[in-house]
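Quick illustration for those who missed Monday's session on complexes.
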Amino acid sequence: MNNLLTKLQELTTELNICPGQVNTIAHNFRQTMLDGLRGKHSPLQMLPSYLHTPSQNEIGTFLTLDFGGTNVRVLLTELLGQGKFIIHAHVSKRLKDTNAHYNYISNQSTADQLFDFIATQIGTVIKPNTNYSLGHTFSFATHQTGLNTGTFVHWTKEIETTGMKGQDINQLLAAALERQHITTVVPAAIINDTVGALLAASYMEQTTDIGSICGTGHNTAYLEPHSPLTNEPMIINMESGNFNQLPFTLYDAELDRASEKPGKQRLEKMVSGHYIGELVRIIACSFFDVGLLDSSPDKKIMETPYLLNGAHLSLFHEDLTVDLSLITDCLENNLHITGSSLDDRKALKTIATLICTRSARLVAATYIGILKHIDPSLKNCHNIAIDGSLYEKMPGYGEEIQKTLTKALGEKGTMVTTSLIKDGSGIGAAIATAIAENMEI
Ligand code: GLC
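Prediction with alpha-D-glucopyranose bound:
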C-alpha cells in the first residue's frame, strides 16, 4: 500500500468519533452546562435571553436587523400568528467587499463606522413618516440584562472591529441611527441568532425547545426549565462554540494556534463552516510529505491560510463522478491548482468527508447533552431547529446528526426530531419585538 493510503487510514481512525465518545462528550457537555448555570467556572457562558418560547399569538409588523458577521440583513417582517408570517422587504449587504474597497470587520474599522454602515442599510428599507420597532439579531456573545439591553462580550468568527468592548449593542445602534438622521426606528429587542432560530421554529412547531446554528459559526440555545435568574423557563444562549472537552488532533491544535483567539471557541473551530475548510487545508498540507499533489506545479497555493471554505468541502464531498471531475474543475478554475492526480482528488474527498462527519457527530453529541439535561428519560417530544449553511447545504450533514442521535438515544430517539429553520434570525427577532411590545392576538 502506498504512503498516502496508509496516512489516510490513520486519519480515518484519528477523526472518527465512535458512539462511546459521543456519550462521553454528551455527558461532559451536560456537566459543563450545569456548572455554567450554577455560576461555576465553565466554558459555557449560559447567557440569559429574557425570553420564553412564543405563544404563537404574536402579531405585528417589525423591522429586523440580522448581524451575523458576514452580511448585514434588514427585513420588514409581518407576523400573522400561528406560525404564519410575510417578509415584505429584504436588503442584504456584505460587511466586507474587497471590490468595493470596504471591510467593516477588520481591526481597521471602528464600532461607530460599522454601526453607521448598518444604519445606512436600515435607511434603505424604511418608508418616510412611518414608525418602526426594531428587533436586532446580533450573533455574538452578549451579556443581556433585559430584552433590549445587551453588553458586547467578545468577537468570535475572526472578526476584529475595534471599540466594541463593554458597549451596549442597541445603544451603539441607536446612536448610529441618530447620526444618520433616522428618527423613526426604535430598537426594542436584542437576541442571539440561536435564540432567533428557536423562537422562529417554535412559533411554527411547539415541540421546538432547542435552536442551533451550523453555519459560519456554531452555537446552540435551549429552553432552560429553571433559569437561575427567575427559576422559571427561559431561553439560554450557551455560546457552546466555546465548549472544550473534546478529542483534539494535532490539526485542531495547529488551526487554533494560528487563529485570532487561541484556546477559545474550540468546538466551533472543529465544526463550523468558517473553520472546517481550513482544517481540510491543514491536513492536505501535512500530506505533502506522502506525495499529495506531487504532480501539481501549483501545490504551494494550498499553503494559503483559509483557502478552502465550506462550499469547497460540499463540492469535494458530493462529487460522485468517476474521475472526480467536479473537484478537478474546482481545483483548476477556482483555486488555480492544476495537475492534480485522481489519487490526490480521492484523498481530498476523503479528508473533506471525514471532517464533515466529525463535525456532525460532535454537534449531535452536544444536543444529546442538552436533551439529557432538560428531559433525562425523554418523556416528551423535542424538536431541534437548525439554521445555517452547513446544515442546509452540506450533503449528508443533517442525516449524520440524526443518525448519531438515534444511535445514542436508542428507541427514545423517536422522541427527537431535527428540522431546518430558514430566516430564523429575521422571524425570531420579529417575535422577540412582538413579545417586548406585548403584541398578541
Ligand atoms: C459564534 C457566536 C455566537 C453565534 C454563532 C453562530 O459562535 O459567538 O453568538 O450564535 O457564532 O452564528
